[in-house]
């Protein structure tokens, strides 16, 4: 609820990494690992901002942020085929109106 994100290993109760205030204090709505690139994950906050984290590029801050200004995004789900090396990765965004938008991610964050 405070925008903190923690990365845990299943064998320990203590986080490997913790990012405090990673969303400028906005509650985190969803966190999803990229299906095609293991070091990349996406965070959706309550203000409809999507943060892209690439731990191989920067493990302190997100590498990109995209705001969806039109209306509130309630949740997101990632789409892709990890067994294919084409690097196609999409994000399905569920809007408050009931609409679903699908956005495609740049290849640099999607390629295995």
Automatic annotation (TrEMBL):
Its GO CC terms?
Answer: cilium; cytoplasmic dynein complex
GO biological process annotation, one example: intraciliary transport
Instruction: Name the Gene Ontology molecular function terms of this record.
Output: dynein heavy chain binding; dynein light chain binding
Spell out the InterPro entries in the cross-references.
DYNC2I1 (IPR042505), WD40_repeat_dom_sf (IPR036322)
Query: What name does this protein carry?
Result: WDR60 protein
Instruction: Look up and give the organism this protein is from.
Output: Chloroceryle aenea
User: What taxonomic lineage is listed for the species of origin?
Assistant: Eukaryota, Metazoa, Chordata, Craniata, Vertebrata
């Amino acid at each position: 609820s405070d925008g903190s994100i923690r990365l845990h290993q299943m064998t320990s109760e203590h986080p490997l990494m913790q990012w405090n205030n990673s969303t400028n204090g906005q509650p985190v709505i969803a966190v999803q690992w990229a299906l095609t690139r293991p070091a990349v994950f996406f965070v959706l906050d309550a203000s409809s901002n999507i943060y892209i984290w690439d731990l191989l590029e920067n493990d302190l801050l997100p590498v990109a942020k995209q705001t969806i200004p039109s209306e509130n995004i309630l949740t997101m789900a990632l789409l892709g085929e990890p067994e294919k090396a084409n690097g196609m990765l999409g994000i399905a965004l569920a809007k408050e109106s009931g609409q679903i938008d699908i956005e495609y991610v740049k290849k640099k964050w999607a390629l295995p």
